[in-house]
Structure formats: C-alpha cells, structure tokens
Fold each of these.
Amino acid sequence: MIIAVDGPAASGKGTLASGLARHYRLPYLDTGLLYRAVGLAVAGKAEGLDFEAGAIAAAKALDAAHLTDIEALTAAETGVLASKVAIIAEVRKALFDFQRAFALQPDGAVVDGRDIGTVIAPDADVKLFIQADSKARMERRARQLEARGQVVDRYALYHQIEERDARDMQNPNGGFYKADDAHLLDTTLLDIEAALRAAIAIVDGTMARKAGQQS
Ligand code: C5P
C-alpha cells in the first residue's frame, strides 16, 4: 500500500505520516528532508547562478549521509532555503527517481511532501492532503522549536511560514495542490491523537472501498 501525504509547512503532515507508517508498519520518507539537505548545501551562497548550480550539483550528489544532521535540517531557516532550491526544475528532476523508487518499493510506503499525490506517486492507493490554518501551524512549529530549547519570535515565524507557503504555491515546477482524489484533513482543531485517528479512518475506509470494488 502506498500512502501519499501532502500539505503546507507545519500542517502536521510529518507527524501524521510517521504515525501512519508506524500503524501500518510501512517504510516512511519525509521528502522535505531531501530539499532541506540541498538547501543546506548552498547555505551562505547569494541567490543567483552560483546558488542554482550548487543546488543542482548537491541534488545530484545527495545520499543518506546528507540526511543525518536532523537539528540543522529541521531548523526554520533551512526550510526557507529548501523552498528556494525547490523552485529549480533540475533540482526537482534530480530528486525524483529516489522518491519514486522509495514509493514503489515492494513493501509499500508512506511518503510525505508537497507533490507526492500529484507528481511522485499519482498512483498511490490513498492520498491525504493535510491542512491547518496559518496561526495553528505557526504555534505548532513554535512549540517544536521551543522544545528544542530555541527562543522563538512568533511574529517572525508566522511571516516565515507565510512566505514559504507563497513561494511553494507559486512554484512553476511544483505540483503543490491537492490531487483531485486526495482526502482533505483539516487538523486545525485536532490534537495529534485525534488527527491520527481521523487519518487511519480515511485509509481504512478507502482501502475497504477499493477491496469492495474489486470483489
Ligand atoms: O516539508 P518541509 O517543510 O520540510 O519542506 C521544506 C520545503 O521543501 C518546502 O517548503 C518545499 O519548498 C520543499 N519541498 C518540495 N517538495 C516536496 C517536499 C518539500 O518542494 N515534496
């Protein structure tokens, strides 16, 4: 079974996707980490041709060793860098095969990101599109960062998330929209347990319907 989980920054899609992976005992890939690793590789470079060439080279050379420094990868500024390299068509192309192969592995997979249901795994068995209002997303991200001992400026964080969403939604090389056959799950008013229960109900319901159609 392939489960595609998409949604904007800090929508809770990562927590939900990893919860689904545990529940169904499936391998899990957070594709945002790939873009974040490419972003980190060009941190400090001014935007321009050098930045673009560096990002393309980093995407082509990316391997598991670049995905270990979770603290640096998940920092808020790395998310901004990731959204800047994510608009480069060649970066997306270089990262495509790895994501597609992960989704298609024989055991099945849970993959989360922005374009999983539309580009990486349009043939996924179940697609979820996770949504939450901007303030709720900012507050969740702020608490995650505070739990790591960081001091958070909520006003700046809110604007950073909005800026990242705007860049993502205008990405000419993206696919950052809800697939027609994706199930919308708004987590604004749900805690983690309730959101996971709702996601499991959607997956079980979809798979039961599909099994019914086949018999
Ligand atoms: O999901 P996360 O917030 O870690 O993603 C960081 C950035 O990477 C996103 O804002 C987006 O620009 C980019 N991304 C992408 N396609 C994906 C996953 C992430 O373009 N499948």
Note: Residues 2-214 form a domain with the Rossmann fold fold (CATH 3.40.50.300).
Amino acid sequence: MTTTSSRRRTAILVSGRGSNMTALLAAAADPAFPARIDVVIANVPGAPALEKATAAGIEALAVDHRGPGGRKAFEERLDAELRARDIELICLAGFMRILTPWFVDRWKDRLINIHPALLPAFKGLDTHARALAEGCRIHGATVHFVRSEMDTGPVIAQGAVAVRQDDTPETLGARVLAVEHAIYPQALRLVASGAYEINDMRVCASEGESTTPAALIVPGG
Ligand code: GRF
C-alpha cells in the first residue's frame, strides 16, 4: 500500500466506550494534524467505541482476544491487521489487554498508552480510589511509550488536577478524564511530528519544537 500523505498512519486500540479515541479522532480530523487515524480495532466485539468510529467515517473492526489459539495467536492476528494497513503508530485508548513482550518489542517506540494516574504512581487498576485512599492532593493522567512491564515507559505528557476534599473516585475520575482528552492529542501530535528523542526514560522535544506537550496543570480545589 502506498500513500502520498506525510501524516503518520495511526491505529487506535480500544476495549470499551472510547472517549479518548473520540478526542484523538477530533484532533486528527484537522488535515494539518501530523497523524491520521486509519483504523480502530477493539479486542471486544460490540465495544461501543467501534460504532462511534464507524459513525466518524473510520474503519473499525474487532479482533476478538477469545478467538482460537490463545494470547500469542490473538497478538499475531492484531499485528497482521496493523501491518496490512501499513500502520506506523498505535495508540492504546482504554485497551484492557496486557500485551506480551513479543508485541511490545515489535512496536517499540511506536506504541503509546494513556494511564489515568501520574506514573510511576498508581500503576494498574482503580487509580482514582487508590489516590484518594492515599490522601493525594494532586492526581492526573500520563501518556507514555509502552514497555513490556505494565504501565512503564518514557513519559510523553502528563496532566494534573487538584484533589478536592469531597471528591469520590467518580468525581475525581471525571476531572482526570477531561485532562486525558486534552493531553492525548498533544502527545500524539509530538510523536507523529517526530520532533523528539527518547533518552532512556526521558522524552526530549527537539529544540524549538512548538508542539511540546510538557505538563498540563488544571487548577481547582
Ligand atoms: C481511560 O481512563 C484510560 O486512561 C484508561 O481507560 C479509560 C478508557 O476510557 N486506560 P475511554 O474508553 O477512553 O473512554
């Protein structure tokens, strides 16, 4: 397959509702955005995100992780769908499967994820409840390159919110989600532009690069 576009060919992998996917699709609807979304793939047939992607005019399909052959066969099917479309970048957006080192290494530095906490704090699930239980005053979200250890990898962007006295996991999570929708497109913009270097765990934007996502702080209290 050949393309005349210089925009990076990008896939979004989802498992559920797809609000981060929607934020990425909205950003990439601008022809000047350096990534274009070529396909959305869910590991769960019927995931609501698939219908939303189709409605936005994006190819959407399911690669069911419960298909024959176990985890390796699932990742091979996924990899084949991505390569068939000459995908260059992958955004995990609420993709609830742990990927094996085989897949992660094949897509090293081209695979990014969003996590609803300020990594390296609160890897894993139930991040908002855990941040509240620990008495955090600041909480947030992280976009990072994926490495084979779960929720680790060079940080591309982070956004923070102040924790309120009366927050519940739901109210805190809602404010963090709004931050996610802001930082994920910024992070993808930087990665797709190519104007950065990865030095161990640090992502350094090129000098003069205007799309540096840096950190986003949402005031409140
Ligand atoms: C987000 O909070 C994301 O950070 C986490 O899963 C959630 C997915 O939400 N990995 P959505 O499907 O993007 O709405």
Note: The two ends are 51 Å apart (CA to CA).
